[in-house]
Design goal:
- The longest helix has 12 residues, at about 25-35.
- It is built from three helices and four strands; from the N terminus they run βααβαββ.
- A two-stranded parallel sheet has the order 1-2.
- It has one domain (about 5-75): Orthogonal Bundle (Arc Repressor Mutant, subunit A).
- The chain is about 40% helix and about 20% strand.
- By secondary structure, the chain is an alpha+beta fold.
- It has helices spanning about 5-15, 25-35, 50-60; strands spanning about 5, 40, 65, 70.
- A hairpin with a 2-residue loop joins strand 3 and strand 4 (about 70).
- It holds the Pfam family DUF2492.
- InterPro entries: Metal-bd_prot_put.
- This is DUF2492 family protein.
């Protein structure tokens, strides 16, 4: 059974990173922390892959993609 991880967990990983992370680095951190059998959910969506989650977070401007990688936008993150 896949572990189901809330998108806030990914946002917190990006917030705690010292610098923006590439998608590959983020995937490695998630796999190291939670294993390879994971799926993601948000307050409004279920059963997402990491790519789907990142696309959603980028579309909501909760994650910003810079030349140097992905970083969380703390001003757009809900606090619940």
């Amino acid at each position: 059974m896949k572990q189901d991880i809330h998108g806030h967990t990914v946002l917190n990983l990006l917030l705690s990173a010292e610098k923006p992370l590439s998608r590959l680095q983020l995937e490695g951190m998630i796999e190291s922390e939670f294993g390879s059998e994971v799926c993601f959910h948000t307050c409004s969506q279920q059963g997402l892959t990491l790519t789907e989650l990142l696309d959603f977070l980028l579309s909501k401007k909760k994650v910003v993609e810079l030349d140097s990688g992905l970083t969380a936008n703390p001003e757009r993150i809900c606090n619940h």
